Amino acid sequence: MTLDPAVAAVRLAVRRTLAAVAAPGEPVLVACSGGADSLALLAATVFEAREEALRVIGVTVDHGLQEGSADHTATVVEQMAALGVDETASIRVTVDPGSWGIEAGAREARYAALSQLAAHFESGVVLLGHTLDDQAETVLLGLARGSGGRSLQGMRDYFRDSEGVGFARPLVGLTRVQTESACRAEGIEWWEDPQNTDPRFARSRVRHTVMPLLERELGPGIAEALARTGEQLREDVDFIERFELEAYARARTDDGIDMREIDGVGDAIRSRCARRAAIDQGAIASELSRAHVLAVLGLLGHKGKQIQLPGHVTAYAEDEVLHFRRTTQAG
Protein backbone atom coordinates (compact mmCIF):
# COMPACT_ATOMS: atom_id res chain seq x y z
CA MET A 1 0.00 0.00 0.00
CA THR A 2 1.33 3.45 -0.94
CA LEU A 3 1.90 5.75 2.01
CA ASP A 4 -0.38 8.77 2.01
CA PRO A 5 1.64 11.85 0.89
CA ALA A 6 0.54 13.95 3.86
CA VAL A 7 1.48 11.22 6.35
CA ALA A 8 4.84 10.84 4.60
CA ALA A 9 5.47 14.60 4.74
CA VAL A 10 4.70 14.80 8.45
CA ARG A 11 6.87 11.79 9.27
CA LEU A 12 9.78 13.15 7.25
CA ALA A 13 9.58 16.51 9.03
CA VAL A 14 9.52 14.78 12.42
CA ARG A 15 12.38 12.44 11.47
CA ARG A 16 14.60 15.37 10.54
CA THR A 17 13.79 17.23 13.74
CA LEU A 18 14.40 14.24 15.99
CA ALA A 19 17.76 13.63 14.31
CA ALA A 20 18.75 17.21 15.08
CA VAL A 21 17.47 17.68 18.63
CA ALA A 22 17.03 14.30 20.36
CA ALA A 23 19.66 11.87 21.58
CA PRO A 24 18.97 8.09 21.33
CA GLY A 25 17.03 6.88 24.34
CA GLU A 26 16.10 10.39 25.44
CA PRO A 27 12.52 11.13 26.52
CA VAL A 28 10.78 13.42 24.02
CA LEU A 29 7.69 15.36 25.03
CA VAL A 30 5.01 16.09 22.46
CA ALA A 31 2.54 18.84 23.35
CA CYS A 32 -0.94 17.84 22.24
CA SER A 33 -4.13 19.90 22.33
CA GLY A 34 -6.33 17.38 20.54
CA GLY A 35 -6.26 19.42 17.31
CA ALA A 36 -5.23 18.04 13.94
CA ASP A 37 -1.77 19.62 13.99
CA SER A 38 -0.66 18.20 17.32
CA LEU A 39 -2.28 14.80 16.76
CA ALA A 40 -0.57 14.42 13.38
CA LEU A 41 2.69 15.39 15.07
CA LEU A 42 2.17 12.90 17.89
CA ALA A 43 1.32 10.01 15.57
CA ALA A 44 4.40 10.69 13.44
CA THR A 45 6.65 11.00 16.49
CA VAL A 46 5.45 7.65 17.85
CA PHE A 47 6.17 6.06 14.46
CA GLU A 48 9.63 7.62 14.05
CA ALA A 49 10.66 7.02 17.67
CA ARG A 50 10.72 3.27 17.06
CA GLU A 51 13.75 3.67 14.83
CA GLU A 52 15.55 6.01 17.24
CA ALA A 53 14.69 4.12 20.45
CA LEU A 54 13.14 7.24 21.93
CA ARG A 55 10.57 7.41 24.70
CA VAL A 56 7.59 9.49 23.59
CA ILE A 57 5.61 11.24 26.28
CA GLY A 58 2.36 12.88 25.24
CA VAL A 59 1.50 15.92 27.34
CA THR A 60 -1.52 18.20 27.34
CA VAL A 61 -2.21 21.47 29.13
CA ASP A 62 -5.62 22.36 30.55
CA HIS A 63 -5.91 26.16 30.58
CA GLY A 64 -9.25 26.02 32.39
CA LEU A 65 -10.68 28.71 30.11
CA GLN A 66 -13.62 26.78 28.69
CA GLU A 67 -16.49 24.88 30.24
CA GLY A 68 -15.73 21.18 30.24
CA SER A 69 -11.99 21.68 29.81
CA ALA A 70 -11.21 18.92 32.34
CA ASP A 71 -13.31 16.43 30.37
CA HIS A 72 -11.61 17.46 27.14
CA THR A 73 -8.21 17.02 28.77
CA ALA A 74 -9.15 13.49 29.86
CA THR A 75 -10.23 12.72 26.29
CA VAL A 76 -6.91 13.95 24.90
CA VAL A 77 -5.01 11.80 27.41
CA GLU A 78 -6.96 8.74 26.25
CA GLN A 79 -6.33 9.63 22.61
CA MET A 80 -2.58 10.05 23.19
CA ALA A 81 -2.43 6.65 24.89
CA ALA A 82 -4.34 5.07 21.98
CA LEU A 83 -1.78 6.47 19.55
CA GLY A 84 0.94 4.49 21.31
CA VAL A 85 2.90 6.93 23.46
CA ASP A 86 5.06 5.47 26.20
CA GLU A 87 3.54 7.72 28.83
CA THR A 88 0.98 10.50 29.16
CA ALA A 89 0.73 13.53 31.39
CA SER A 90 -1.65 16.42 31.85
CA ILE A 91 -1.29 19.63 33.79
CA ARG A 92 -3.78 22.35 34.68
CA VAL A 93 -2.65 25.97 34.72
CA THR A 94 -4.09 29.25 35.91
CA VAL A 95 -4.10 31.90 33.22
CA ASP A 96 -3.42 35.44 34.34
CA PRO A 97 -4.37 37.78 31.49
CA GLY A 98 -2.81 40.78 33.24
CA SER A 99 -2.21 43.59 30.78
CA TRP A 100 -1.20 41.09 28.09
CA GLY A 101 -4.68 39.68 27.47
CA ILE A 102 -6.00 36.11 27.52
CA GLU A 103 -4.05 34.86 24.48
CA ALA A 104 -0.67 36.02 25.75
CA GLY A 105 -1.44 34.93 29.32
CA ALA A 106 -2.43 31.44 28.16
CA ARG A 107 0.71 31.16 26.04
CA GLU A 108 2.96 32.16 28.93
CA ALA A 109 1.26 29.71 31.31
CA ARG A 110 1.43 26.92 28.69
CA TYR A 111 5.15 27.24 28.04
CA ALA A 112 5.91 27.41 31.75
CA ALA A 113 3.90 24.23 32.30
CA LEU A 114 5.59 22.41 29.41
CA SER A 115 9.00 23.41 30.74
CA GLN A 116 8.00 22.09 34.16
CA LEU A 117 6.89 18.77 32.65
CA ALA A 118 10.12 18.49 30.68
CA ALA A 119 12.10 18.89 33.90
CA HIS A 120 9.92 16.29 35.61
CA PHE A 121 10.56 13.72 32.88
CA GLU A 122 14.22 14.73 32.53
CA SER A 123 13.69 15.60 28.90
CA GLY A 124 15.59 18.25 26.98
CA VAL A 125 13.10 18.74 24.16
CA VAL A 126 9.40 19.45 23.66
CA LEU A 127 7.82 19.16 20.22
CA LEU A 128 5.14 21.70 19.25
CA GLY A 129 2.57 21.34 16.47
CA HIS A 130 2.76 24.80 14.88
CA THR A 131 2.39 24.79 11.10
CA LEU A 132 3.22 27.09 8.21
CA ASP A 133 -0.26 28.60 8.57
CA ASP A 134 0.46 29.48 12.20
CA GLN A 135 3.73 31.02 11.06
CA ALA A 136 2.01 33.16 8.43
CA GLU A 137 -0.57 34.34 10.96
CA THR A 138 2.19 35.27 13.40
CA VAL A 139 4.05 37.31 10.77
CA LEU A 140 0.83 39.08 9.76
CA LEU A 141 -0.01 39.90 13.38
CA GLY A 142 3.50 41.27 13.82
CA LEU A 143 3.04 43.44 10.75
CA ALA A 144 -0.22 44.80 12.16
CA ARG A 145 1.47 45.71 15.44
CA GLY A 146 4.20 47.66 13.66
CA SER A 147 6.85 46.31 16.05
CA GLY A 148 9.69 46.02 13.53
CA GLY A 149 11.73 43.15 12.14
CA ARG A 150 11.87 41.18 15.36
CA SER A 151 8.09 40.97 15.47
CA LEU A 152 7.88 40.08 11.78
CA GLN A 153 10.33 37.20 11.94
CA GLY A 154 7.67 34.84 13.22
CA MET A 155 8.32 31.68 15.21
CA ARG A 156 11.67 29.90 15.31
CA ASP A 157 11.72 26.22 14.45
CA TYR A 158 13.83 25.66 17.57
CA PHE A 159 14.58 27.69 20.69
CA ARG A 160 15.57 27.19 24.33
CA ASP A 161 13.76 28.73 27.26
CA SER A 162 15.39 30.26 30.32
CA GLU A 163 15.52 26.82 31.97
CA GLY A 164 17.44 25.31 29.05
CA VAL A 165 14.52 23.26 27.71
CA GLY A 166 14.49 23.02 23.92
CA PHE A 167 11.25 23.62 22.02
CA ALA A 168 11.08 22.38 18.42
CA ARG A 169 8.46 22.93 15.71
CA PRO A 170 8.86 20.10 13.17
CA LEU A 171 5.74 21.03 11.16
CA VAL A 172 6.43 24.74 10.66
CA GLY A 173 7.12 24.04 6.98
CA LEU A 174 3.87 22.11 6.44
CA THR A 175 0.33 23.43 6.07
CA ARG A 176 -2.74 22.87 8.17
CA VAL A 177 -4.31 21.15 5.17
CA GLN A 178 -1.49 18.59 5.26
CA THR A 179 -1.89 17.83 8.96
CA GLU A 180 -5.63 17.39 8.57
CA SER A 181 -5.07 15.13 5.56
CA ALA A 182 -2.58 13.08 7.57
CA CYS A 183 -5.11 12.64 10.37
CA ARG A 184 -7.83 11.57 7.94
CA ALA A 185 -5.48 9.07 6.28
CA GLU A 186 -4.67 7.50 9.66
CA GLY A 187 -8.25 7.57 10.91
CA ILE A 188 -7.52 10.10 13.65
CA GLU A 189 -10.42 12.29 14.74
CA TRP A 190 -9.44 15.73 15.94
CA TRP A 191 -11.01 18.46 18.04
CA GLU A 192 -11.83 21.93 16.76
CA ASP A 193 -11.07 24.45 19.49
CA PRO A 194 -14.02 26.90 19.61
CA GLN A 195 -11.60 29.69 20.55
CA ASN A 196 -10.04 29.32 17.10
CA THR A 197 -13.26 30.70 15.61
CA ASP A 198 -13.99 33.27 18.33
CA PRO A 199 -13.78 36.74 16.74
CA ARG A 200 -12.76 38.26 20.08
CA PHE A 201 -9.25 36.93 19.46
CA ALA A 202 -6.98 38.62 16.94
CA ARG A 203 -5.49 35.36 15.65
CA SER A 204 -8.97 33.98 15.00
CA ARG A 205 -9.86 37.04 12.94
CA VAL A 206 -6.65 36.73 10.97
CA ARG A 207 -7.24 33.02 10.34
CA HIS A 208 -10.87 33.14 9.29
CA THR A 209 -11.26 36.64 7.83
CA VAL A 210 -7.97 38.29 6.89
CA MET A 211 -6.08 35.34 5.37
CA PRO A 212 -9.03 34.15 3.21
CA LEU A 213 -9.49 37.74 2.00
CA LEU A 214 -5.82 38.03 1.05
CA GLU A 215 -5.92 34.68 -0.75
CA ARG A 216 -9.05 35.73 -2.62
CA GLU A 217 -7.81 39.18 -3.61
CA LEU A 218 -4.10 38.52 -4.17
CA GLY A 219 -4.13 34.89 -5.20
CA PRO A 220 -2.97 31.65 -3.56
CA GLY A 221 0.36 31.28 -1.80
CA ILE A 222 -0.01 34.14 0.68
CA ALA A 223 0.75 31.94 3.70
CA GLU A 224 3.92 30.60 2.07
CA ALA A 225 5.03 34.12 1.12
CA LEU A 226 4.50 35.45 4.64
CA ALA A 227 6.41 32.51 6.12
CA ARG A 228 9.31 33.11 3.72
CA THR A 229 9.34 36.78 4.67
CA GLY A 230 9.60 35.85 8.33
CA GLU A 231 12.48 33.48 7.63
CA GLN A 232 14.42 36.10 5.65
CA LEU A 233 13.89 38.73 8.33
CA ARG A 234 15.05 36.28 10.99
CA GLU A 235 18.43 36.02 9.27
CA ASP A 236 18.76 39.81 9.18
CA VAL A 237 17.66 40.22 12.78
CA ASP A 238 20.06 37.53 14.00
CA PHE A 239 22.94 39.31 12.25
CA ILE A 240 22.07 42.75 13.63
CA GLU A 241 21.42 41.40 17.12
CA ARG A 242 25.11 40.69 17.70
CA PHE A 243 25.93 44.38 17.37
CA GLU A 244 22.87 45.32 19.39
CA LEU A 245 23.89 43.11 22.32
CA GLU A 246 27.43 44.48 22.32
CA ALA A 247 26.16 48.06 22.40
CA TYR A 248 23.51 47.32 25.02
CA ALA A 249 26.06 45.68 27.32
CA ARG A 250 28.10 48.91 27.26
CA ALA A 251 25.20 51.24 27.88
CA ARG A 252 22.76 49.48 30.20
CA THR A 253 22.14 50.78 33.71
CA ASP A 254 20.25 49.39 36.68
CA ASP A 255 16.97 50.96 35.56
CA GLY A 256 17.53 51.79 31.90
CA ILE A 257 20.23 52.79 29.44
CA ASP A 258 22.83 55.55 29.08
CA MET A 259 22.51 56.55 25.44
CA ARG A 260 25.76 58.56 25.57
CA GLU A 261 27.66 55.26 25.58
CA ILE A 262 26.30 54.32 22.16
CA ASP A 263 26.08 57.70 20.50
CA GLY A 264 27.94 56.66 17.36
CA VAL A 265 26.42 53.24 16.65
CA GLY A 266 23.68 54.42 14.28
CA ASP A 267 19.93 54.81 14.58
CA ALA A 268 19.13 51.14 13.94
CA ILE A 269 21.20 49.95 16.92
CA ARG A 270 20.20 52.86 19.17
CA SER A 271 16.49 52.20 18.71
CA ARG A 272 16.95 48.48 19.30
CA CYS A 273 18.90 49.14 22.48
CA ALA A 274 16.21 51.50 23.75
CA ARG A 275 13.58 48.86 23.01
CA ARG A 276 15.59 46.17 24.80
CA ALA A 277 16.02 48.41 27.84
CA ALA A 278 12.27 49.00 28.02
CA ILE A 279 11.55 45.28 27.81
CA ASP A 280 14.16 44.45 30.45
CA GLN A 281 12.35 46.85 32.77
CA GLY A 282 8.96 45.19 32.24
CA ALA A 283 7.47 46.55 29.00
CA ILE A 284 5.56 43.92 26.99
CA ALA A 285 7.62 42.99 23.95
CA SER A 286 4.67 41.91 21.80
CA GLU A 287 2.88 45.23 22.37
CA LEU A 288 5.84 47.59 22.22
CA SER A 289 5.46 49.25 18.82
CA ARG A 290 7.81 51.33 16.72
CA ALA A 291 5.83 54.40 17.79
CA HIS A 292 6.51 53.57 21.45
CA VAL A 293 10.26 53.25 20.83
CA LEU A 294 10.43 56.52 18.92
CA ALA A 295 8.51 58.24 21.72
CA VAL A 296 11.00 56.88 24.26
CA LEU A 297 13.92 58.19 22.22
CA GLY A 298 12.10 61.52 21.97
CA LEU A 299 12.37 61.88 25.74
CA LEU A 300 16.13 62.43 25.54
CA GLY A 301 17.04 65.94 26.59
CA HIS A 302 13.53 66.66 27.93
CA LYS A 303 13.72 66.42 31.72
CA GLY A 304 10.37 66.04 33.45
CA LYS A 305 8.60 64.53 30.45
CA GLN A 306 7.42 60.91 30.64
CA ILE A 307 5.39 58.38 28.67
CA GLN A 308 3.50 55.20 29.53
CA LEU A 309 4.46 51.90 27.89
CA PRO A 310 2.56 48.58 27.64
CA GLY A 311 3.09 46.59 30.82
CA HIS A 312 2.53 49.46 33.28
CA VAL A 313 6.00 50.88 32.70
CA THR A 314 6.80 54.60 32.73
CA ALA A 315 9.74 55.92 30.71
CA TYR A 316 11.50 59.20 31.43
CA ALA A 317 14.93 60.76 30.79
CA GLU A 318 17.61 62.64 32.64
CA ASP A 319 19.85 64.29 30.09
CA GLU A 320 20.86 61.43 27.75
CA VAL A 321 19.99 58.62 30.15
CA LEU A 322 16.69 56.75 29.74
CA HIS A 323 15.06 55.45 32.91
CA PHE A 324 12.09 53.10 33.37
CA ARG A 325 9.96 52.45 36.45
CA ARG A 326 6.73 50.75 37.34
CA THR A 327 3.83 53.09 36.61
CA THR A 328 2.24 52.33 39.98
CA GLN A 329 5.24 53.70 41.82
CA ALA A 330 5.36 57.27 42.96
CA GLY A 331 7.67 59.28 40.91
CATH architecture assignment name of the largest domain:
3-Layer(aba) Sandwich
Helix-strand category:
alpha/beta
Our Rg estimate from Cα atoms comes to 22 Å
Order of helices and strands: HEHEHEHEHHEEHHHEEHHEEE
Number of domains: 2
Write down the CATH class of the largest domain.
Answer: Alpha Beta
Main sheet: which strands, in order across?
3-2-1-4-6-5
**What is the average per-residue confidence, as pLDDT, rounded to a whole number?**
89
Task: Put the structure in a nutshell.
By secondary structure, this protein is an alpha/beta fold.
Any key phrases for this structure?
6-stranded mixed β-sheet; 5-stranded antiparallel β-sheet; 11 strands; elongated
Q: If you had to describe this structure to a student in words, what would you say it looks like?
A:
The structure is a single chain. This protein has 331 residues and is α/β, with parallel strands linked by helices. The protein folds into 2 domains: 5-130 and 169-218, 3-Layer(aba) Sandwich (Rossmann fold); 242-326, Chorismate Mutase Domain, subunit A, CATH 1.20.59. It is 50% helix and 15% strand. It contains 11 helices and 11 strands. Strands 3-2-1-4-6-5 form a 6-stranded mixed beta sheet, sandwiched between helices. A hairpin with a 2-residue loop joins β7 and β8. α9 packs across α10 (267-280). The chain is elongated. The termini are far apart.
